[in-house]
Design brief:
Number of strands: 8
Keywords: Cytoplasm, Hydrolase
Order of helices and strands: EEEHHEHEHEHEHEHH
Structural class: alpha/beta
Low-confidence stretches: none
Helix content: 25-40%
Number of helices: 8
Number of domains: 1
Radius of gyration: 16 Å
GO molecular function: hydrolase activity
Largest sheet: 8 strands, mixed
Organism: Lyngbya aestuarii BL J
CATH topology: Rossmann fold
Distance between the termini: 24 Å
Subcellular location: Cytoplasm
CATH class: Alpha Beta
Main location: cytoplasm
Length: about 210
Amino acid sequence: MEYAIASKVIKIQTANIHYLEGGDPQNPSVLFLHGASFNAKTWKDLGTLKRLTQKNFHVIAIDLPGYGQSESISDYHDEFLPKLIAKLSLQKAILVSPSMSGIYSLSFIVKHSQHLQGFVAIAPVGILKMSQQLRGIELPTLAIWGSEDRIIPVEQADMLVKLMPNARKFILAKVGHACYMKAPNKFHEGLIRFIDQVTTVTQEEE
């Protein structure tokens, strides 16, 4: 079944935060952040949200504070995702975090990984800075990188895989930093395969 992608607003602290939502909330949830040049609509335009709702996933793509249609919140990186996930009542979501959004996602992984089902790290910023805190975190993680990334080099994917015992790499050949934009079909294949594996394992455990 395919669901419409709805535009919604939630209040975090005193700011109105805009997001896109699709799919059945009873199904496994995938929460999308975005890079500095993008916003929630990027995932809609790329077809990611539609593909995942067709696969029976519940999707949410956030405009991070100060981006897209969301108002700014100052000095709130560490507290934003815990507040957001609690307000949206997301249980064991898979968090997708490209580039700039690493300033939100990595601190969340360090402190609250037990609240997630999986993590998709798309060349996020902050791996070097947080390497010691990330060491040993067992959250299932897929590190997606473009082989030609000059901003966050692919060596940082190798580092993430060494630090996190349940992490693995998925390298998109001949593309740079915003690899999902340049090779969307390969990106979607890898993303959906990972989400399927993570959610299937969880269902079997239940």
